[in-house]
Amino acid sequence: MESTKVLDAKGLACPMPIVKTRKAMNELDSGEVLEIHATDKGAKNDLVAWAKSGGHEFLHHEQEQDVLKFWIKKG
């Protein structure tokens, strides 16, 4: 999946992946896609809820070994 920006949040525990995602999203224009790489197992639920509450679109997620990858389109 194509993304505008990639955020490396590997090794960070809650709430840091969300804090860094919020900061990275502020640098994007509406319609652009942020790809997030995380290792925190709680990141999926957190990011889905955060995207919905912020008016963004949670596009997709996948797991590659221990790394969780997420794609969120800025609303």
TrEMBL record:
It comes from the Bacteria. Pfam families: TusA. InterPro entries: TusA-like, TusA-like_sf. Residues 7-31 form the UPF0033 domain. Belongs to the sulfur carrier protein TusA family. This is TusA-related sulfurtransferase. It comes from Metabacillus malikii.
